[in-house]
């Protein structure tokens, strides 16, 4: 499945932020540097008290904007760009049982675009 331009741009920004976070070792400095690079103006980062030092971001996309597909790619970006690992453990949270069941079914199906997106960025996937 081909990503839309806004999806790819969002994931590219996430990748840049994670790379900067790893390079600088500081989520605030990385956020400021990334937003300055991408938007021409540095924006202050608002750290989550319960997650000190951990990069915390939200990608905002429109309704029916492909958030689940983007999340599949984001897993690989976080693993490689921030954690620097080939394999990682993912906790996938959903707002309802229905969405959880649909997402789980899709991720288990080796021919579904979500599963393919995970495998594109991660290689092998165990579900």
How would you portray this structure in words?
It is a single chain. With 127 residues, the chain is mainly α. The protein has one domain. The chain is built from five helices and no strands. α1 crosses α2. The two termini are 20 Å apart.
Task: Provide the fold topology.
Layout: H1 5-24, H2 27-39, H3 67-83, H4 97-108, H5 113-122
Give a count of the beta strands, DSSP E runs of length 2 or more.
0
Distance between the termini: 20 Å
- Supply Rg: 15 Å
Helix-strand makeup class: mainly alpha
Q: Helicity range of the residues? A: 55-70%
Principal-axis shape equals globular
Please provide the ordered H/E string of secondary-structure elements.
HHHHH
Tell me what portion of residues adopts beta-strand conformation: under 5%
| Number of individual domains | 1
List low-confidence stretches: none
Mean pLDDT equals 91
Largest sheet composition: none
Helix segment tally: 5
Primary descriptors:
127 residues; mainly alpha; globular
What is this structure, in a nutshell?
The protein has 127 residues and is mainly α. The chain has helices at 5-24, 27-39, 67-83, 97-108, 113-122.
């Amino acid at each position: 499945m081909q990503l839309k331009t806004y999806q790819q741009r969002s994931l590219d920004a996430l990748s840049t932020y994670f790379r900067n976070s790893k390079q600088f070792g500081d989520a605030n400095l990385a956020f400021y540097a990334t937003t300055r690079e991408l938007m021409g103006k540095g924006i202050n980062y608002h750290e989550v008290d319960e997650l000190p030092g951990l990069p915390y971001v939200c990608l905002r996309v429109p309704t029916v904007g492909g958030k689940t597909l983007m999340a599949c790619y984001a897993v690989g970006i976080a693993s490689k760009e921030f954690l620097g690992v080939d394999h990682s453990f993912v906790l996938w949270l959903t707002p309802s049982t229905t969405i959880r069941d649909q997402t789980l079914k899709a991720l288990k199906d080796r021919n579904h675009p979500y599963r393919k997106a995970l495998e594109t960025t991660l290689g092998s996937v165990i579900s």
